[in-house]
## 1
Amino acid sequence: MSMAEFVGREYRALQVSALSNDFSGTALVTQQIPAIADDAVLIRVKAASLNFPDVLMTQGTYQFKPELPFVPGLEASGEVVAVGQAVAHVRVGDAVIAMVRQGGLAEYLIAKPHEVRRMPANLSWAQGASYSVAGLTAYVALVSRGHAGAKETLVVHGATGGTGLAAVQLGKHLGMRVIATGRSLAKLEIARQMGADHLIEISTALRDDVLAATQGRGADVVFDPIGGDVFDASVRALAWGGRLLVIGFVSGDAGQVRSNYALIKGISIVGVRAGEFVRRDPERGQAALAAIDSLAAQGVLLPPIGEQFAFADAKAALERLASGSIAGKLVVNM
């Protein structure tokens, strides 16, 4: 079908019409496909996965604040059903992955060409929708920004979520010794299954626990999406020349570091915004995306899927993610 034949077609989307902490402003609605530009790709979504920024955006606390109303969802997989005349790298019928700033939690998704990639042939729709955000974040953090190396020690905080598990997988692939941390040793077993060498249940003794696990030396690299007290303890648990990779602030607190401590230990505090990395440095960004696609196709970088929801229960899926009780990625199937 041509692009024009889809204009006006009704479809369902999970729409945020008002910001709230309890998702009261979020509901399934019916929309119509608008006129589509020549440089756009129309995708019939098969699956979408959720990421914690989706929760933060519904609350208005994420660094990217889309105008209301908006449809959350940073990544999805699906079938190309129409393309603009200026699009050449995908065709109608292709199975693709879309990584976008919003819009994935809908039956149809309009994406720009640079947001769309062919999906590795050996993946399911759910797998295809699940690894881009987590995998790209891990890759940009460890490889592009953190310069992680074989035989170094990597501490991954939040190692039961999709992004943390991707960091565990990639760290092992790079030949690192990986220490996984989380709030529950039982939930951390999934990190051990992904290759983690040592597990730490986060407590007020986090610094001492990391030092004990590294025979007093400290960590070479820390992957931190938590912030707050975890960030503060991680700074003190770094080895000489260590790098603390700031991924986010799930705790709600950014944490602080004194400059004299950075000087004395020769450490680096490195900010990681994977999406912004791709937007500001397209050449290196596309190389990173090609790398994670290859690793996903090999089965190296595929965070496990913890739970799957039907699209009718998409709001409940967001609530489940916000509860912090899920291990692995959460997928909504269309």
## 2
Amino acid sequence: MIRRLRWWLIAIAVMCVLPLFVPMSITRLLVMAAYLAIFAMSWDMMSGYTGYVSFGHPFLIGVAAYVSAFLSHQEGFQPPHIVLPLYITIPLGVAAAVGGGMLFFLPSMRVRGPYFSLVSLAFMEILHRLIIAIRPEYTGGDRGLPALPAVVTGAVPNYYLALGLMFAVAIGLWFVTRSDVGYVLKTIRMDEDVVEASGISTYKFKRFAFILSAATAGLGGVFYTHYLQSLGPRWAFSATFLLDIIIAAVIGGMGTITGPIFGGYFLTFILEYLRPYLFGQWRLFAYALAAIFIVIYRPKGFYGIAQDVRGWFQRRRIRGEV
């Protein structure tokens, strides 16, 4: 574990000096990639480790984002309300994501397979419709909430904020997954009935994984919203946003935590550089096809490819020493 922590420190050092060598446009892309990596890691914590595939992850992100945005929104808002500072609204947003997840998702965790996925998707769609139709003077309706306050301003400060959040989330989740809890979650993914038969309450471990996943999604959601300084249901609850999160985790490597980081960065940049050549749904089709290809031929994603390359070099070195 100490050796692996050394690699984390090297990655942090490299990423910290990166803005000194890349143009501002790339720095902004790196900010977007860091937030996508946070969302992908939060999805992986639940779906990658327990095998309960969630299609409603934007529900958690949206709850946190809307709570923080509503409480901090102040420009042209009707009716008037008390505006709170961000150091209060951000924790409240994260707490709302955890509370909303416990209220709606935890009862559905007693069902398995596609039933859980369908229930999670249903809750996301319900929240989407409620925000548009119910009291739009509070939620902004289909227009959303513009002119939100920013945590920091400028591309470089936002880069370091996003980077710090991403590495804090990554290292925290990495320690959890390397603990006994992580091994139990992996066993639940492989065979939940065997874990139940051994006397372990799988519901408690799934609940812990989901709460941790919800808190991570909420944390990323509030900071990402205030980075964009606007919030609308079209991006928060769109199918494209959901696919971005899932595909980033899948092509990076499910059940690894570090894999979704690579997936988030790869997907962000490949989408940007495909923009001049593929438009609209064709771009979505292209990277969905790439994800399917990776799932079929490299189920462990980029993480598995990196492990294969590492094993190849180790075998070469051993043969050389012999």
## 3
Amino acid sequence: MSDSAKKVAVVLANNYEDVEATSPIEALENAGAEVTIVGIEKGEITGKKGDTQTASKTFVDVSPDDFDMLLIPGGGSPENLRIDDAAVQFTRDFVQSGKPVASICHGPQLLISAKVVSGRKLTSVNKIRDDIVNAGGLYVDEELTEDGNLITSRVPGDLPAFNEAITKALG
């Protein structure tokens, strides 16, 4: 990748929804982006269905200044990330930077813990809609919702619209 390639942080922990990581990563890389997997620890991270990704950076190694976009795949990963203070702070700082933040399925759990959903319109898997509302967010049941720098989708079936929106937002 050239130094001019757009840089995307993908935050992952074990039990992520495989296709919610692999499909957007592939779309972003096909658009010329440089993707970095950021985890609580460096090393292998395993998805719900057996996919593996390797975290080359931890949250203490990175800053939102290092990236042009944040991607938060769903599954059990956001629940595992939201209890890590450094992951929550990185997410909060990234949203506050104004740069695009893309989240699918259970991804908004991390946004909720970062306290950045109040007054924002977003979607997610319906299992956490009450959590969004209780955090002051405006939940909508749509395949794709964009509110400022937040780009959200619900489930793997929404990936075509989600991938198109995130590659467009990346420029």
## 4
Amino acid sequence: MPRLLVIGYGPIAAYAIETLAQDDRFTLAGVLARPGREGSARALVREAGAIWTSVADVPKGAVDLAADCAGHTGLAAHGPALLARGVDLISLSVGALADDSLARTLESAAEEGDAQLEMAAGAIGGLDALAAAAVGGLDSVTYTARKPPAGWRGTPAEETLDLAGLGEATEHFRGPAREAARRYPKNANVAAAVALAGLGLDETEAVLIADPMRDGNRHEVTASGAFGRLSLTLDGRTLPDNPKSSALAAMSLVRTLRRRIARVAL
């Protein structure tokens, strides 16, 4: 029964902890929270686990597996120390790997601790097919994100678009997935996931669109290669308690954790 450490205490962490509480194959060891936010984390876990603010505070041998729900900053802050300690880590922050320096640091730490960093698929599907297709060779991969204007608030889209007054679907970014992940760290994890499964961060085209006719997020992936052609469209819903958090991303994290301990895995 793995003792699980959760990085973060937001909506996705809450979903994972609540869902896994019904699964007797897991024990919640504790949560890593930002200093000063221990109270928020304690309200989430109640008496089920400990609250720590750094990996150095976690007793040696207290954790078998970790789940990152805290975004790029959480992975950068805690991932290397956990991996170097030998703790396998599941993360939703795939876009963080667009930073070559961080990617190298995480890989070196994993080698040091003989541990593994696994990226959950997050808010998109079909990555297994895309990764398989990459074995035979891919010619092109394009990822398109269509979100309502409100979904792009607080991003570089505000520099070129009047999001509040937008009357039609408008493209505000087109370029390599690496650049999309860097410029939109809270919005382009899917672009990075698609890229890493297929042609890579620099050869995968990402297109980001603000669409006032949409009330949810649409993810589109097209690819061609020796395998044939792939076309995927996914209309995602958000978690009921948070309109910015993908329900499928939270479910994907739980699914990946369960697969890690399954005797027969798919």
